[in-house]
Design brief:
By secondary structure, the protein is α+β, with helices and mostly antiparallel strands. Among the domains are: about 170 residues, Uridine Diphospho-n-acetylenolpyruvylglucosamine Reductase, domain 3 (2-Layer Sandwich); about 80 residues, Ribosomal protein S10 (Alpha-Beta Plaits, 2-Layer Sandwich), CATH 3.30.70.600. Helices cover about 25% and strands about 25% of the residues. A 5-stranded antiparallel beta sheet has the order 3-4-8-6-7. The protein is globular and about 65 Å long.
Length: about 350
């Protein structure tokens, strides 16, 4: 079932007789959702407000991300949190939508410098499990007041409500960008190099490791980027020669393209950067991509590997494969009790993506 209006969505949720599988563009089927009728928000599409001067865009949840990026690019602006397109990694079809990006708090390499999707979310409109339309936040930064349901909805994966519209802060596209590459570093040295770059005063906006190469990105005004690149080259000198990239590796890091054809389970693991050095060997990972200076690991591991058994902190999400245990990391009992209380309030009948995050 695809809804095309908020009124239709309210009715669909109010009249639902059983579980519903909430779907945006259908590009990211994470979790073992085998029950329930599919309810798609792809019919709720279109940019409803764009004010370049206020750095604000408002769009219906089913609006393709590519459409939003095209509208922003005309005014020299962008979604600064750099959302990932899962189709490359998962081999799926469909079209990434802005509602799904918000529902998953999908954030790319630039998160280390500007923040995550939730940090740019100004307002949301959604329908809860009882079929009630709820609006929270605002359409401009100065109007964001009241209870912060905006942050609550971001990352809830449709378990608390179905998004119909989102308001986001945007930022200008950088005038210049350069990426420095270090080759042949061990995992330990790569993490140390990225940490050195991120600890420098040179405003690094990307730090990743893939395919045996380590990458560090700088963005800003041209003269500033040139100066900072020269200085950062000296900071990285103990790790080898940092050379400017001829191409842009951030698409490959953001989309994790290196793991697209690698067999086995793929996990998204969030840890301290230094933990990656000891964790990956324990997992017998066949390949891995590091982002956020090593704080985000995309790991391809043998099917059925119990990744969480080797972790003492952080969290791991099964992105592709059969895995071991639930797709999402189990919450500590006190947090799980709060989560269940929220679900009871927003979805009293338990019809919204039941079982997805448990």
């Amino acid at each position: 079932m695809t809804v095309t209006s908020e009124t239709e969505l309210c009715a669909a949720l109010r009249d639902a007789k059983g579980p519903l599988r909430i779907q945006g563009g259908g590009t990211r089927p994470i979790g073992k959702l085998e029950m329930g009728e599919v309810l798609s928000t792809a019919g709720l599409s279109g940019v409803t407000l764009y004010d370049p001067g206020a750095l604000t865009i408002v769009a219906k949840a089913g609006t393709p991300v590519a459409e939003i990026e095209a509208v922003l690019a005309e005014s020299g602006q962008r979604l600064a949190f750099e959302p990932m397109d899962h189709r490359h990694l998962l081999g799926t079809k469909g079209t990434p939508t802005i509602g799904a990006v918000v529902a998953g708090n999908i954030s790319g390499p630039r998160r280390i410098s500007v923040g995550a999707c939730r940090d740019f979310l100004l307002g949301v409109t959604f329908v809860d499990g009882a079929g009630t339309l709820v609006k929270n936040g605002g359409r401009v930064m100065k109007n964001v007041t009241g209870y912060d349901l905006v942050k609550l909805m971001c990352g809830s994966y449709g378990t608390l409500g179905v998004l119909t519209e989102v308001a986001l802060k945007v930022l200008p596209i950088a005038a210049a960008s350069t990426t420095l590459r270090l080759d042949g570093l061990s995992l330990e040295r790569a993490v140390a190099a990225m940490s050195a770059a991120l600890g420098s005063p040179y405003d690094v906006t990307g730090a990743g490791h893939a395919g045996g190469a380590t990458y560090v990105r700088l963005e800003g005004f041209g003269e500033s980027v040139r100066y900072r690149a020269a200085e950062l080259t000296q900071v990285l000198a103990p790790f080898g020669a940092a050379i400017p990239c001829d191409d842009d590796p951030w698409h490959q890091i953001r989309e994790v393209t290196a793991l697209a054809d690698v067999p086995g389970d793929v996990w998204r693991i969030s840890v301290r950067p230094t933990d990656a050095v000891t964790l990956l060997p324990m997992l017998s990972a066949t390949d891995a991509v590091l982002d956020w200076g090593g704080g985000l690991i995309w790991a391809a591991v043998p099917p059925g590997t119990d990744v969480r058994r080797h972790m003492t902190r952080g969290h791991a999400t099964l992105i592709r494969g059969t895995g071991h245990g639930p797709a999402f990391h189990p919450e500590p009992a006190p947090v799980a009790a709060i989560t269940q209380g929220l679900r009871d309030r927003f979805d009293p009948r338990g019809i919204l993506n039941p079982g997805l995050m448990t």
